[in-house]
Amino acid sequence: MAVSSVITNQMLMNQLKLNEITMENIKLDIVNTINERIRNLEKQISDITSENTKLELQVGVITNQNNQLESELQDTKDVAALSLQKVNDVEQWTRRSSVRIYGLPDNQKESFTESINKSLDVFDKIGVQMPPEHIDIAHRLGPFKVGKCRGIIVKFMSRKDKLLVIKNRRNLKGSNITIREDLTRINSQLLHKTLNSPLVSQTWSMEGVIYAKLVNEKIIKVYQHTNIDKALDDNSAGFTNKSHTVPKSVQFEGNADLTQTETNGMDESCYHDSTASQSQIEPNNISNPVFERTPRQAGQQSINLTSYFSPIATTTTTRVQLT
Questions:
Q1: Nearest residue to 95 via CA among 171, 13, 185
Q2: Which has the closest alpha carbon to 195: 83, 308, 97, 92?
Q3: What pLDDT was estimated at residue 236?
């Protein structure tokens, strides 16, 4: 009996030792497995980090290339804008001796001679005795349309005659006839875009240059790149003394309310001359029509002025003999 008990105890002790060895082996296997997985993860992390570093370098290169391309693109845009401005300035310069007359009765087969005679009648009305030989050419703008009065473009032999007409055109105030500078399309669009700014109370052109009177009474030249918001806050910009203030009495001849009233043959061209001096906007020299803003009612939509632009007519140098 005693011997049997001793054997049983010995067997139990052996089993316990075996279990301990088994547990140690299991623990060792688990630790080895975990360590292996950790090593694999560390290698993966190292590979990912290395790949990420390569990608960061590539992103840096691409970013530099992109910045360079953006810089080159901006330079190209600047050159294109400058070229367009120069072309616009040259085109405006070619129009320095021309004016446009709107509001005159039109007929489908109106000849150059008839257009010249109608223009001369208008000049008589404003007190300018214009010899017929001082007019190079005059003709209607665009194709004839029933119910519409096309404008007449008049090219003078001398710029002095054009300035004389511009100076005296205010005498047409109260009539349905208007005389405007012959602006390029770009300048004309800029003129009306400026007028639509809530920060502008008046706008006009002088020798192809667009001027704007801001709501704070400041007068500025307006170009394609002009930031009116900045000009309003910039105390150094514009002309603020009284000698450069546009009189309220200087009104746009004919249909003045451009935000509500359709005008006949709105200028399809535009303006610009960066050499214009400040003296050109003295009150005594202001003879261009001043477009005054009419406050819009809430919810009222502004008229799309581009719908009034007519095709640009090419001015020839052919002389028309009056009979």
A1: 185
A2: 308
A3: 54
Cross-strand bridge partners of residue 203: 212, 291
For 152, residues 6+ apart whose C-beta sits below 8 A from its C-beta are 100, 101, 102, 104, 115, 118, 119, 138, 139, 140, 141
Q: Answer left, alpha or beta for residue 289, where phi above 0 means left and psi between -120 and 50 means alpha.
A: beta
Which tokens hold the place of 292? Answer: 């005054």
Query: Which token pair is 322?
Result: 């009056």
Q: What is the mean pLDDT of residues 211-220?
A: 92
Strand partners, 49: none
Cα 257 to Cα 53, 290, 294, 300, 302, distances in angstroms: 65, 11, 6, 14, 11
What SS3 class is residue 101? strand
Q: What is the pLDDT of residue 241?
A: 41
* Closest CA relative to residue 184, chosen from 287, 290, 84: 84
Distance CA 183, CA 204 (A): 11
Which is nearest to 125 in space by CA: 107, 110, 111, 104?
104
Share of the chain above pLDDT 70, in %: 72
CB contact at 8 A, 308 and 266: yes
Name 139's bridge partners: 153
Q: Between these two residues, 214 and 305, which has the higher pLDDT value?
A: 214
Distance CA 103, CA 180 (A): 11
E strand or H helix at 203, and its extent? strand 200-206
**CA distance linking residue 77 with residue 75, whole number of Å:** 5
CATH class of the structural domain 95-308: alpha beta
User: Residue 55 pLDDT more than 50?
Assistant: yes
**What single-letter amino acid sits at 160?**
K
By percentage, how much of the chain surpasses pLDDT 90? 54
Positive or negative CA dihedral for 218, 221, 222, 228? negative
